[in-house]
Amino acid sequence: MLIFKILLASAVLVMSLVVAMYSTLIERKMAGFFQDRFGPDRAGPWGLLQPLADGIKLFFKEEFMPNTADKLLYILGPSLTMLIACLTSAVIPWGPDIIIRGQAYSLQMADVNIGILYIFAIVSIGVYGIMIGGWASNNKYALLGAVRASSQMISYELAMSLSIITIVMMSGSLSMRDIVNQQQGFNWNIWYQPLGFIIFLICAFAETNRSPFDLPECETELVGGYHTEYSSMKLGFYLFSEYINMFISGAVMATLFLGGYHFPFIDKLGLSPNAFAFVSFLVLFAKITFFGFIFMWVRWTLPRFRYDQLMRLGWKALIPLAILNVLITGVVILLNQK
Amino acid sequence: MAALTKRSKVVSNKKMSFWEKIYLPAILGGMWITLGHLFTRKTTVRYPEVTREFSEIYRGKHVLKRDDEGRERCTACGLCAVACPAEAITMIAAERKPGEENLYREEKYASTYEINMLRCIFCGLCEEACPKEAIFLTKEIVKAGYERDTFVYGKDVLLEPLDPLKRIDVSKRQTPEVLEFKKDKNQRHNVQ
Amino acid sequence: MFSNYIFYFLSALALYSAVMVLLSKKPIHSVLYLTLTFFAIGGHYILLNAQFLAIVHIIVYAGAIMVLFLFTVMLLNLNKDERSPKPIWVKAAAIIAGVMLGLVLIAVFRGYDLHLEQHPMESQIGLVKELGRVLYKDYMLPFEVSSILFLTAMVGAVLLGKKEQL
Description:
heterotrimer, B: alpha+beta, Alpha-Beta Plaits, two-stranded antiparallel ribbon, 5 strands, elongated, C: Four Helix Bundle (Hemerythrin (Met), subunit A), 76% helix
């Protein structure tokens, strides 16, 4: 059992790394296509070797550290960001149980009964890597980026949590597995919580620092934001963790709102349990890909928000809406009980 | 006040309606537009495999033409240098010695003729100014280089090769009107 | 016992980082050490099978409060050591106060019968279901009163944050 868990953890880790790697390529391809270009297509067929080339380039770039930087924290920043980005995948159920030699193995690393809270905790400490890195660089742009990141994350966490509370209220459980299993077939949460879904989606953009909320790193104002002073693979870690975060937040959204690995009629195909698990995993992966596409689509459509607009949207629009949503959900649940 | 252009719009600061305030319809509209771009034909020319088609009258590197008998047409009159807005052309005139009639068409010729390609703006005014149909712009591209000196092209680069197979065809550059004009023997410089 | 080693490790980490909060020269380091202390304590909660408490502890303290601390300390830019040496009576008062607090703590723990849970992993009180039951059944009134307190605090904060005088 332990061996299986370790294997599963490594598999998920490798998967998120590979997906993040290829997200960089897909992002650039999409950017190209949205702007009537082709995007990178020189390295290998359709540019498939481009992520490899980028990785090699980042590894061989000069490792630069500012003289005045806080050495330990400067290194801790990107490492922490990367570590935290990889942690979230632990509670996501990647598929139904698979059966090896008559024993059922769960495709979820840890079925803790507080899965959603665990995700919140990881998201809320995710800002440390950015803040530490931004502060340790001893650079005004980096510090500004770090301060922006922290206030943005704190602001949007609230609306995010409030939008998920409705899901918890409906399912009556904090465990990811329970929430997924209540959305069998086409009984997805998005049909019951469209407002909550939209709020969560917007907050996910803000929490992953993706455009139009990429204020912590906005290159036109702050040079590079919190990673201004970073180079080589340390910079790579920061950029990379953004894509991992994107992948994981897509997985969380798919799990909470789009029914996770459930899809109508696949349980009627009469597949063997393992094939069923595989197909279910593919379904989940397709949903995650869909969210990845939306992330990129929005990035190449919408311009960046101004900082006061960002704060106003978070505090004056999303949080009241989320509270309203909680209220409505509570009333409906109460009425249904009678 | 009259609008300066047809496309100018009067900016108003009117209150936004509810649908405008929540921005979502506008955002979805924008996303629809970008989605359309996802499927449009791409404008990229994949360069090494595909080269962009040149216009027949593309203005690239200059050539100093020879006439049918392989004599240099240029007579170093300096009109091209005068016409050049970028002052890229310089030349030194020399007198034709007896026995050089097969090299130079007129009694006077350019012993050096230099175009500074860093200054040249490829406007084609030299071509227009030339009374002897000696200088033309070709489809050839001026190559990039590492040294500034290499961009001053002398006669060794500019002159059309003698080999009849390597002669440069500029007939496409001469519009019917120009050809017609050049046939007009009443114009003094067209008289051979 | 494996969990014993984890306990000792976490305790050592918590104590070390708590001491380092006081000893670090840079305020930012103090704040980060404090965060580390909170994580260590969160680990203790998990050892007690109180997952809900552990996670909420991390969300609230490490995720929100310490980020705000860090935020403020970064903006204040306290790096330059411009603090003038304190007068002697301040130091004396601090020492006396610290010693007295220590005495009180020792006195309290001496009289307290340390009730050791024999099987901490089997305790169910820290799980979300049990906790909810306790909060909403046994301690309903204090719970609701504290939520009203929070609401009042929030309204107060909004009032203070308003620019114009009321």
